[in-house]
Design goal:
single chain, 79 residues, alpha+beta, four-stranded antiparallel β-sheet, 2 helices, 30% strand, elongated
Length: 79
């Protein structure tokens, strides 16, 4: 995957994670506060880099990833 495409894919996955955690915590985060690891082509995991609260320490959310020739789609649901 070209570098620019990989960067856009990472940004899209992190954005899904930011929005999912915001619904629970109400916290606006900086870009470096969450990390995303792609497990494979269809799944990723997000976690806090420097967790402070109990929620942040236990937060390891799974997300789904879809890639087409021109689009990246990522979803994360926290129940």
């Amino acid at each position: 995957m070209p570098v620019l495409c990989a960067a856009k894919r990472l940004f899209s996955a992190k954005e899904a994670a930011f929005k999912a955690q915001f619904a629970v915590t109400g916290k606006m985060l900086g870009f470096r506060e969450l990390s995303v690891k792609f497990v494979n082509n269809t799944e990723f995991i997000a976690y806090f880099v420097n967790p402070r609260s109990a929620f942040e320490k236990t937060f390891e959310a799974k997300g789904r990833s879809w890639t087409t020739d021109v689009h990246f789609m990522h979803i994360m649901i926290i129940a």
